[in-house]
Amino acid sequence: MNGDSTRDPGAEDELVPAPRRLSEAALQRIERETRKFPPEQRQSAVIPALTIAQDEFGWLSTETIEEVADLLGMPPVAAYEVATFYHMFHRAPVGRHKITLCTNLPCALSGAGRAAARLKERLGIDFGETTADGCFTLVEGECLGACGDAPVLLHNNKRMCSFLDDDKKIDALIESLRAEGAASDGEGGV
Length: 190
Prior knowledge:
- The protein is of the alpha+beta class.
- The protein is built from 7 helices and 7 strands.
- Strands 4-5-3-6-7 form a 5-stranded mixed β-sheet, covered by helices on one side. Strands 1-2 form a two-stranded antiparallel sheet.
């Protein structure tokens, strides 16, 4: 959160988080995406617009989804349907590093079960959980489309890591992500 809060006049001394608004940079990126479509089809940019919003906040609150819907000139429920349909969108906060491990058949046959066990052991969490420090969220994923590189995982929906059949490779990945987070924290946070 941005730390701002307002008092809800109906609530006795209860602090209510002030809604966050998309930054000017995010609004400009969304506008660029909408220009890829005819003006009467601005709503076709809903997936990239939601992705931009999620990149900014780390997850999609109801208010953020409504803001995106308003920008695209579509009913909020239509944007909400997209945000809840696709697994890449988060409706609650997740860790700084979201790790989605594919456990479909090709990955399973190539060692995804062992990779899952190692990730769970090293992170101290199970699928669907986030570490206490908010650094990692571990997710069980469906096919990531890289069966020839199995087992695979996807880091933050952006970077594929392949051939994770070796504990040393998994350990190195986790340490690399921890170091990346520590470096970011030393520069004013993530």
